[in-house]
Amino acid sequence: MQLPKKKTPKALKFNATFTYAPAPESKSHVKLQEQYGLFINGKFEKPNSGKYFETINPATEEKLAMVADANAKDVDKAVKAARTAYDKVWSKMPGKERAKYIFRISRMLQEKARELSVLETMDGGKPIRESRDIDIPLAANHFFYYAGWADKLDYAFPNQQPKSLGVAGQIIPWNFPLLMAAWKIAPALATGNTIVLKPAETTPLTALKLAEIIQESGLPEGVVNIITGAGATGAALVQHPGIDKIAFTGSTDVGKLIQRATAGTNKRLTLELGGKAANIIFEDAPLDQAVEGIINGIFFNQGHVCCAGSRLFVQESVYQKVIRKLKDRIETLIVGDPLDKNTDIGAINSKQQLDTIKKYISIGIKEGGEIHESSCAIPKKGFYCRPTLFTNVSQSHRIAREEIFGPVLAIQTFRTDDEVIEKANNTAYGLSAGVWTDKGSKIFNMTSKLRAGVIWANTFNKFDPTSPFGGYKESGFGREGGVQGLSAYLKSF
Amino acid sequence: MKATTPNRLTVLKTYKLFIAGAFPRTESGRYYIATNKKGEQLANMCQGSKKDFRDAVVAARGAFKGWAGRAAFNRGQILYRIAEMLEGRRAQFIEELMQQDATRAEAQREVDLSIDRLVYYAGWCDKFQQIFSSVNPVASAHFNFSVPEPMGVVAAIVPQNDSLLGLVSVMAPVIAGGNTCILLGSESKPLCSITFAEVINSSDVPGGVVNILTGKPSELASIFANHMDVNAVIYCENDTKTQASIKEQAAENVKRVHFYAGKNWYKEDGQSPYFIMDTQEIKTTWHPIENIGGGGSKY
After folding, report:
1. Which of A33, A172, A352, A383 could, after both became Cys, cross-link A180 (CB 3.0–4.6 A)?
2. B17 part of a folded domain
3. What is the full DSSP assignment across A379-390?
């Protein structure tokens, strides 16, 4: 049989006839202090350690502020403040009163949304478009959603009398600084717990702004304490005997350390850890939308997303076409100044993370992957990485197994549904997955067989306060968001 | 053991393990002697080994896809079938519990409650999902829902006391939710665990869904906790040292750990759908909604 001649898809041409004028968001609205203390018992205090560290703008490497480095004594002070606030005030307050404080915090976040968005982008490097349209509104919404639960907990879990745990120690990552603070603080407050929160050392500023908002909201002293520092501060928090619950979002390695550290204690634990999500494109998918979904899946927030669609599986019959479209599309991505409203991909969060990403890119090449990068220019100063694709990747390659946490996509192919289910599930992780097809029954077959906590069908990287988020297997346990997110902060049943 | 008829020698049972729907002896060839309080020998029990456990995990993993994929209604029927089979062998279990020092009244109560507990969870099989699922009213143009799904392979060291009721109370919610399991029966009162395997084996429970070992928790607890293809571990004793070591070793692959220490399985709170939820994951699925009412499609 004569096979029809295959046409090789042609590359689109992007001539430089059309460029975007710079459209930077102004920084003038951001009020920053030169130095921040620890937010303990409703006041900003000098750290016992006497030490401060600097937090920089990863897009420019300029210093933004000095931030206190909490030591074990500071942690102890914060935990004690939280305990006192729990015993004397917060655990006794009726739910409807707790609710009003949380609503108030949500409103104030909305009022200061612009300042917070710009600051989030300055401190973390993410595009202003994302902090403005996703991080900050979602953070405010999260408080608003959980506020309403505070006086309705009796309805959440049938046949149970919900009881708060006590003092929650919460440790959050640098990829969605304010949003993760909201994910942690809002449900804990709604359920009647008090809090010691530690933001990541590279992105503490919006959490400290949140501390100012909490102060302004009149929330009783000590109900929320926010202390800054690096790994040692986090370890001191995890090990503190006065903590009833640890909630951690971060790497799987650190999550395992925390699980070990809580062994032999009665501390409750929830972990939201790493991922290596499969994003699966079937031949009958709406390919243009699927390509947008691939882009959003891996390049959203520079790929600093635990649920990033970092493993792409394309059905063989449309492989050439999808790769062509994908290569065209990454040429159009604007990499650069995160404060510019046209920017798609901002700065990598830190030098350290950029080194990690570079290490994985060289591993990918060494292991036989075929690399393709966007040809875009990147700023000389600051930490940047071009959007990167790897083809010729197999299941055993490290770039297909390990979480890179950067804009690097590992692409594989498949022929049958069963094959791709097997490949997609062949990972220690299980946080999220994506499926693209126009066939409803195939969607349900896939979404029920993929072993992951969040499945996006014909979409990717969507979040909502009402929607529980969290992983299977080594992606951690417990859920954040929705009614299910309440149980992480209530006595076991 | 008393002969039932004069001059007739009773046939004794060889208590073996239950793995993948078969009754193998322990590969280790080891045994320990089960006795009653007076120290009289009841049986030679298999002293299950690491290899037995690993074989059981392979069986449980192999059975998981099929069991989780069954209709919840069908799982309910099978759990009910287990209750039927246990009811039919009620006398045998009472006898066995009495050999292990229970009074007749105690033994009757334990067996009856075990049967009732199976019926209780049989009924939950196709209902707990409705209680714990949600359709989430997200603010974007998406349809979004969350449902419980089984965790996978669950390894449980069942209660030392209440050797039948404890085993049933731990096992039933695990398999009702679609998980497969490996159970280590009571070390000191092991007879019922293997006799119960015979009930499982005649109840249309697919091979590998329930695997039952006998042996020493002191030896096997850490093996349960550090196996890389086990998703959750359940431990029922109050031994804080063992608890700590289980939790620590479970971290290697982020196992879910549940301690049911001090649970009174005879009480009302010895059963609830929350036990089922202990070995469930919540999965959330999103799909865009087309542009209806100007909401905007969000691919």
Report:
1. A172
2. no
3. -SSS-----EEE
User: Does residue B62 surpass a pLDDT of 70?
Assistant: yes
Is position A3 within any domain? no
Structural domain span for residue B210: 31-288
Residue of A nearest to B271 (CA): A493
Shortest distance, CA B40 to any CA of chain A (angstroms): 37
Question: How large is the average pLDDT for residues B228-244?
Answer: 97
Residues written for chain B? 299
Does residue B72 belong to any structural domain of this protein? Answer: yes
Q: Does the interface ipTM go beyond 0.85?
A: yes
Q: Does A306 participate in catalysis according to the annotation?
A: yes
Residues 6+ apart with CB under 8 A from A325: A9, A287, A288, A291
Q: Is the pLDDT of residue B261 over 90?
A: yes
Does residue A382 share a domain with residue A287? yes
* Whether A265 and A289 share a structural domain: no
* Together in a domain, A266 and A282: no
Could you say which of A45, A201, A306, A480 is catalytic?
Answer: A306
Q: Cβ of A176 under 8 Å from any chain B Cβ?
A: no
C-alpha closest to that of A126 among A171, A170, A180: A180
A317 occurs within a structural domain: yes
Q: How many domains does chain A have?
A: 2
Same domain, A326 and A238: no
* Phi then psi dihedrals of residue A128, to 5 deg: -60, -30
CATH number, domain containing residue A360 = 3.40.309.10
Supply the CATH number for residue A203's domain.
3.40.605.10
Q: Which residue of A has its CA nearest to B148?
A: A453
| A287 shares its domain with A251 | no
> Considering only CB atoms, which chain B residues are within 8 Å of A285?
none
Same domain, A352 and A231: no
Mutate to test the interface with B, among A251, A473, A490 (most CBs of B within 10 A): A473
Q: Are strands B41-46 and A52-57 parallel, antiparallel or unpaired?
A: unpaired
For CA atoms A357, A361, A366, A368, the dihedral sign is positive
Is the pLDDT score of B296 beyond 80?
no
pLDDT at B297 over 70: no
A208 close to B (CB below 8 A):
no
Residues A435 and A478 in one domain: no
Q: Is residue A26 part of a domain?
A: no
Chain B residues with CB under 8 Å of A257 CB are 251
Q: Residue A360: which domain range?
A: 278-457
Q: Tell me, what CATH number does B43's domain have?
A: 3.40.605.10
CB A20 within 8 A of CB A376: no
Q: How many residues does chain A have?
A: 493
Average pLDDT over chain B reads 95
Q: By CB neighbour count within 10 A (0-12 exposed, 13-18 middle, 19+ buried), where does B190 fall? A: buried
DSSP letter, residue B19: B
B283 → closest Cβ in A263, A271, A453? A453
Do A199 and A269 sit in the same domain of this protein?
A: yes
Q: State yes or no: pLDDT of B134 exceeds 90.
A: yes
DSSP B227-261: -TT--EEEE-S--HHHHHHHHHHHGGGT-EEEE-T
Structure tokens at B128: 């707990």
Say if A446 falls within a structural domain.
yes
Which residues of chain A have a pLDDT value below 50?
Answer: none
pLDDT at B294 over 60: no
Domains of chain B: total: 1
B272 domain residue, yes or no? yes
Return the pLDDT at A7: 67
Count other Cβ atoms within 10 Å, centred on residue B201.
17
Q: Is A272 a catalytic residue?
A: yes
pLDDT category of residue B7 using cuts at 50, 70 and 90 = confident
Instruction: Tell if the CB–CB gap between A255 and B140 is shorter than 8 Å.
Output: no
pLDDT of residue A12: 77
Cα–Cα dist A385/A383, whole Å: 7
Q: Is residue B275 part of a domain?
A: yes
What per-residue confidence (pLDDT) applies to A1? 56
